[in-house]
Amino acid sequence: MARPKIALIGAGQIGGTLAHLVALKELGDVVLFDIAEGIPQGKSLDIAESGPVEGFDATLKGTNDYADIAGADVCIVTAGVPRKPGMSRDDLLGINLKVMKSVGEGIKAHAPDAFVICITNPLDAMVWALRSFSGLPKNKVVGMAGILDSGRFRHFLSLEFGVSMRDVSAFVLGGHGDTMVPLARYSTVGGIPLPDLVKMGWTSQDKIDEIVQRTRDGGAEIVALLKTGSAFYAPASSAIEMAEAYLKDQKRVLPCAAYVDGAYGLKGLYVGVPTVIGANGIEKVIEISLSKDEQAMFDKSVDAVKGLVEACKGIDSSLS
Ligand code: A3D
Does ipTM surpass 0.90 in this model? Predict the structure, then answer.
């Protein structure tokens, strides 16, 4: 059986890291696409030359031609511009919307059967636009954010409790922005929910509140440190987890920016929710019950996403 073909649209910081991870994990052969000439070719060759040392079997091809992504099983989209210190994700909307148009048309023409994972910011609006421009089925186009946001939450919690990150699970809902909703009630250490851990005296509510805020600001914390771009290692790992769930039909329960129509009272909006990912893409959107306060935070986050979607429609009249 032929190896899966994985097209990475955008060969910048995340794209290059994705290519390396795909090869190291032997998930398939890589086509690395970018409009910048030489970058995808150079990165692909560099990673391929690590193959004899790492001992992986995968081919890597760098390209500036969409025809090379033909028949891809998975496309991971990072094309566009990342933010710089002082910028919000939303400041990227105008420029990245144009990029989504060309990427969506490229995927539509050459890889219409792919499972498409969008990472470009502002995430929830860009994945919505990419889905519209590509015309692909809604269960096959999804955004990566929840795994990263909950990964950050898990990391900070493991530091607070002094336990393995593997034993910490965490839940983040809503849009990938300042209004994201980390849910303490559904986050656990060794299966024990955070509110119970506060009652047990292992931590304090103030500490949890601090960690929730640090999670919300997790992207900005890295941007402020790097100064020249945004996070790329953890975002790449998170998207790879989604690609692997699809390629191996793992039925993983993963938080993603999925198309929600009906659940959570939403009518056709991309927003971060728990999902099941398997061979059919997004196979299920899991609707959890929310307390009054949680619902209010979720509604605020949804409103922020709706505002960005409306802004996209204002810029490009072909979107509806
Ligand atoms: P960067 O290293 O700048 O790479 C972006 C690449 O896109 C560059 O190589 C560009 O040449 C390329 N590009 C620009 N326009 C096009 C086009 N029309 N077609 C193809 N390629 C193009 O950025 P990065 O890899 O650090 O980040 C990529 C995106 O991911 C940015 O929008 C970030 O804001 C976003 N991001 C999202 C998350 C989430 O959690 C959702 C996290 C981190 C970064």
Answer: yes
Distance between CA atoms of 24 and 45, rounded to whole angstroms? 14
pLDDT in tens, 282-303: 999 999 999 999 999 999 999 9
Secondary element (H or E) of residue 17: helix 13-24
Beta sheet of 188-189, edge-to-edge order: 168-169, 188-189, 192-193
The residue type at 13: Q
Cα of 254 vs centre of ligand 1, distance in Å, is: 23
Encode 110-137: b = buried (16+ Cβ within 10 Å), e = exposed.
Answer: bbeebbbbbbbbbbbbbbbbbbbbbebb
Q: Tokens for 191?
A: 């299966």
Q: Which residues are catalytic?
A: 176
Q: Phi, psi (5° rounding) for residue 2?
A: -65, 150
Q: Which residues contact 99 (CB under 8 A, 6 or more apart)?
A: 79, 80, 81, 120
Helix axes 39-54, 13-24, angle to 10 degrees: 30
CA nearest ligand 1 atom 1, residue: 12
